[in-house]
Write a structure and sequence with these properties.
It is built from seven helices and ten strands. The protein is an alpha/beta fold. The longest helix has 16 residues. The chain binds adenosine-5'-diphosphate (ADP) (2 copies). One adenosine-5'-diphosphate binds next to α1.
Length: 233
């Protein structure tokens, strides 16, 4: 059973009387525990598709079933609730708060959930453990490397136990060695049972994912599955 089911998804942007159709009928199933890289030229619709997958936006037409519920026609409030429960986001910009420690940054998404401070810190530590940074929990962002900072951002995305982890160019600000380190972390997270979908422009980065979906001009051009690369091999 798929965790993401997209059927004939279309998305148009309207500017005055002009409509621009950016997604032109995307049908795609992503299964639990998959590690998928989304590629394609600039303007092919990757960000638009990620915004729909992440429940930040709804399609103009078509069906999106996320973890069993139809989110394609949901009102904004309901969509926000699904988003908070089901989705973890990692961005190119790390968006950590500089005055907070790693653990406090990771715990931020839990503040709105009425979780006690003690439990917030426990869950933040557990998430930091998953990205191999339990020993940096009391460090502030300016005391960490770029790779460590991105791992803290990944831990923050995981702290709510989302059913899918979405990452938009997560290695866009990192050098190639650090990028590999971050991709390995995504691999471990996927192996531990999470579903990971990430956008990248770089073939070297996409090579870490088992499945690569390529968009072109609002349609899926190719969808290939192969043995992923491992940095440690
Ligand atoms: P990619 O991420 O592959 O570069 P995008 O999804 O960002 O592609 O954009 C696809 C096309 O849709 C581009 O032509 C872009 O300018 C247009 N577009 C994206 N978002 C909007 C928007 N909010 N309003 C109008 N046009 C948009
Ligand atoms: P990417 O690096 O994925 O190509 P873009 O620079 O295309 O990102 O888009 C960044 C953000 O701006 C996206 O959320 C997209 O929806 C929005 N955007 C892109 N093009 C337009 C546009 N023509 N009008 C309004 N918003 C846009």
């Amino acid at each position: 059973e798929s965790i993401i089911h997209l059927e004939n998804i279309r998305k148009s942007y309207y500017m005055g009387s002009h409509a621009l159709e950016v997604l032109k009928g995307i049908t795609l199933d992503i299964y639990r525990k998959e590690y998928v890289a989304l590629m394609g030229p600039s303007g092919s619709g990757k960000s638009t598709l990620m915004n729909i997958l992440g429940c930040l936006d709804t399609p103009t037409s078509g069906t999106y079933i996320l973890n069993g519920s139809d989110v394609s026609k949901m009102a904004d409030d309901d969509l926000a609730e699904v988003r908070n429960k089901e989705i973890g986001f990692v961005f190119q910009q790390f968006n950590l708060l500089p005055r907070l420690t790693a653990a406090e940054n990771v715990a931020l998404p839990l503040i709105y959930g009425g979780v006690s401070k003690k439990e917030r810190m426990e869950r933040a530590l557990e998430a930091l453990r998953k990205v191999g940074l339990a020993d940096r929990s009391q460090h502030k962002p300016n005391e960490m490397s770029g790779g460590q900072i991105q791992r803290v951002a990944i831990a923050r995305a995981l702290v709510n136990n989302p059913s899918i982890l979405l990452a938009d160019e997560p290695t866009g600000n990192l050098d190639s060695k650090t990028s590999v380190e971050v991709m390995e972390i995504f691999g471990q997270i996927q192996a531990a049972g999470n579903t990971v979908v990430l956008v990248t422009h770089e073939e070297d980065i996409a090579a870490f994912a088992k499945r690569v979906v390529r968009l072109r001009d609002g349609l899926i051009e190719t969808d290939t599955t192969r043995e992923p690369k491992h940095a440690m091999a």
